[in-house]
Design goal:
The chain has about 110 residues and is mostly helical. It contains six helices and no strands. Helix 2 packs across helix 3, helix 2 packs across helix 6 and helix 4 packs across helix 6. The longest helix is centred in the last third of the chain and has 25 residues. The chain is globular.
Length: about 110
Amino acid sequence: MEKILSKNLKDFRVKLGLTQDQIADYLEISREEVSYYETNRRSVPVDLIPTYAKLFGIDEYDLYEEDAAINNLNLAFAFRANEISPNDLKVIADFKKIALNYLKIKNVLAQ
């Protein structure tokens, strides 16, 4: 599972056009720690999983998804930007979480 998580963290970051430095600033950790997590040299702390998921605009369990097609679908609507600040990333992540919650509520109400 850890290997899948590491691969997905890197894949999501790269596909969204974010650098390890940007992720580190957003998570308030060092760039080296981000690298360790992406290469599976260190386990990702449990408290960072929701923060990563929020930034990527996905559910936490999606970070453990093995199916590349599902991951590509999750990224299809993701926000991409070349130059954004750590604060911008926090605002974007908050907005993604609101949108994800809205879609979940909409699905529940439609049933």
